[in-house]
Design a protein that fits this description.
Helix content is about 10%, strand content about 30%. The protein is mainly beta. It has a 4-stranded antiparallel sheet with strand order 3-2-1-4. The longest helix has 11 residues, at about 60-70. The radius of gyration is 14 Å and the shape is globular.
Length: about 100
């Protein structure tokens, strides 16, 4: 079992992809105030996909990639197909 599956939530996690790419269609993009690990709240981009219950929190790297593909106006992203893939992660402490 992937570690991500131990902590289910409302947002997508790469472990849920079971090592496979997923192509999804963007339904909506919004900003939502989310609690931070170190306390407080911060506005984060949230992407909703057609046919998916879970949403994706948009980190800076993913946001920059999507912006490069479809521009700065997030309304232009709606209806676009996006392929997400689970990237290999190398833990700096265990090297696995």
């Amino acid at each position: 079992m992937d570690y991500d599956l131990l902590y289910p939530g409302r947002f997508m996690k790469s472990g849920e992809f079971e090592g496979k790419d997923r192509t999804l269609t963007i339904r909506a993009v919004r900003v939502e105030e989310l609690e931070q690990d170190k306390g407080g709240v911060r506005g984060k981009g949230i992407i909703t996909f057609d046919g998916e219950k879970k949403e994706m929190v948009l980190n800076r790297t993913n946001g920059e990639c999507i912006k490069a593909m479809w521009g700065r106006e997030t309304n232009a992203w709606i209806g676009k197909r996006l392929t997400l893939f689970p990237a290999a992660y190398l833990d700096p402490f265990t090297k696995t």
